[in-house]
Amino acid sequence: MAKEYEGVKKYIDKYHSALPSNIFSDPKFSFRVFLIPKVGNREKTSDVAIEFIKYDPSKPKEMKLYKKFLIAIKEKRSNGEFRPSKVAKKVYEALKNKMPKDWKFTASYHHSKCWKYYKIRPKNGAKDPFRTNEKYCYYDEAFGQYVYTQEWIDFLIDKLANKEEYKKIFGKNL
Length: 174
Hints:
2 domains, 5 strands
């Protein structure tokens, strides 16, 4: 196993050293990989395998075990994190001229209906609040709340502009 590890490590180091510094330091070009051996029932039949494991901060003991196999890290970065009230405001502003004059889009009712309908995060009080669709939503452990991405806002604006989709979510016509 050590021989294979060293080979992978040398390859990664050589690759990194050939990258221009502006690309190497850009978080969009990094990733985390844990190498965990898959053991057969006899030593000679065992192979080295690469398995991608999603980091789960709700399982710190398990994640600590993987650290000894750590080769590289990919940080997840959002292009913005918005609280529900900001999401609601942005969606409302984008759609207000396309909707009836009395149309509203609130965080507490409308936004809640949307995240539930599209199943982008677990319900409040869920055992594992980190199980989100990370393209649209993250759980902020420090503040104990969910934050949403610009992609989520754009997605909602696109979907809610469609009258049939709106009716599916809210059960009524515009």
